[in-house]
Write a structure and sequence with these properties.
The protein has about 375 residues and is α/β, with parallel strands linked by helices. The chain has twelve helices and twelve strands. The strands form two sheets. It has a seven-stranded mixed beta sheet with strand order 1-7-6-5-4-2-3, with helices on both faces. Strands 8-9-12-11-10 form a five-stranded mixed beta sheet, covered by helices on one side. Strand 4, helix 6 and strand 5 form a beta-alpha-beta unit. The structure holds pyridoxal-5'-phosphate (PLP).
């Protein structure tokens, strides 16, 4: 694409970035570069260090998050590369309800004597910053997975900066279409590109983004030496998915709000968590720092505590005929799962169902869920 004279909106950037230079007769898409080695003497020598298909993807995600991006083999590879840079016995403050893999990783590293960590209620800004006083890194997620708690990103990131510690935001749930943490003061952003960025549940990938060249240098080195690199085909698929990110987010969050509102007035449903609902405790904050509310809705069905709640949720999932009972999120299809099936879901109620709302016709999704609820 040729260079436009005015800055483009995000909806246009997702379409136009990461393309080869314009020249008559050349391809408009960045090719998938299947080569592990390069002729000596150029900028790239070996594809564990760089690859043109990655570079196209990094240019695109970097611009969307307003920083510089490095891509990885998965979200966990991106997260590990950031945490690996910390000195031995560094302390990390992390949300008690953040993605289970992040807390599991921290626990493993702590068992090995590598780091210290503390899990906190991220909605309590004052308490979080108290924990940060002797910490090295503040890890944030907003909304959290799967409880959808919203924290004050601006206050926490600026508080962390005043204390001289690094703030990191896992922006997987929101995506840069809805929330740009670097603009709210974060030092680093991480993503599981497996989810919304790629958007079709067919690829694993991860990203780290920062404006600080020393951080980019550190995570680039971790990627080369750790070796958790993205395949060129995966880079192509993620970039291809990003072309429709704006449309997918718009449609799936429109569906999510309708479904959350209907679930809220459904007699067989007890709790509905969605930041777009005015009943959500973080609704006002989310309205200020997000440009939308995302497309994940968590809810519980009525039916008592513990075993009964678990059984009710599992029966609902078994009753689905159109939506899919599967883990993960951020694809075009609507997925539901009982989140407590997994370990490290310490704070998650036993019967909580996490729903990743897709882009299908909302009435088809609702008919399926409503039918399964009637069957309880
Ligand atoms: C918020 C969040 N961060 C990170 C990850 C890890 O990403 P990946 O599965 O690509 O390693 C996940 C995966 O579910 C996630 O939900």
């Amino acid at each position: 694409m040729s260079n436009p004279s005015t800055p483009l909106n995000l909806e246009s950037l997702v379409v136009s970035l990461g393309r080869p230079p314009v020249a008559p007769g050349t391809a408009i898409n960045t090719p998938v570069e299947f080569s592990s080695i390069y002729h000596h003497g150029g900028e790239i020598a070996y594809s564990r260090d760089s690859n043109q298909t990655w570079e196209a993807l990094e240019e695109t995600i970097g611009a969307l998050e307003a920083g510089k991006a490095r891509v990885f083999a998965s979200g966990m590879a991106a997260i590990s590369s950031v945490i690996d840079t910390l000195a031995p016995r560094s302390k990390i403050v992390v949300p008690e309800d953040s993605y289970n893999g992040t807390r599991h990783l921290l626990s493993e590293l702590s068992n090995m004597g590598r780091i210290n960590w503390v899990a906190v209620d991220i909605t309590d800004t004052h308490a979080v910053l108290e924990h940060c006083k002797d910490a090295d890194m503040l890890w944030l997620e907003s909304p959290t997975n799967p409880l959808l708690n919203v924290c004050d990103l601006r206050a926490l990131c600026s508080g962390a900066r005043e204390l001289g510690i690094t703030s990191v935001v896992d922006n997987t749930f929101a995506t840069p279409m809805i929330q740009r943490p670097l603009e709210l003061g974060a030092d680093l952003v991480v993503h599981s590109a497996t989810k919304y960025l790629s958007g079709h549940s067919d690829v694993l990938g991860g990203v780290v983004i920062s404006r600080d060249p020393s951080w980019i240098e550190r995570v680039t080195l971790r990627r080369s030496l750790g070796g958790a690199v993205l395949g060129p085909m995966e880079a192509f698929l993620i970039l291809r998915g990003i072309r429709t990110l704006a449309l997918r987010m718009e449609k799936s969050q429109e569906n999510a709000l309708i479904l959350a509102q209907r679930l809220e007035s459904e007699s067989k449903v007890s709790t509905v968590r969605y930041p777009g609902l005015t009943s959500h405790p973080g609704h006002e904050l989310a309205s200020k720092q997000m440009n939308g509310f995302g497309a994940i809705v968590s809810f519980e069905v009525l039916g008592g505590k513990d075993q009964k709640a678990k059984d009710g949720a599992e029966r609902l999932l078994a009753g689905l005929k159109f939506c899919t009972d599967a883990t993960s999120l951020g694809g075009v299809e609507t997925l539901l799962e009982r989140r407590k099936r997994w370990s490290w879901e310490d704070k998650t109620p036993r019967g909580l169902i996490r729903m990743s709302v897709g882009i299908e016709h909302v009435e088809d999704i609702w008919a399926d869920i409503h039918g399964a609820l009637q069957g309880l």
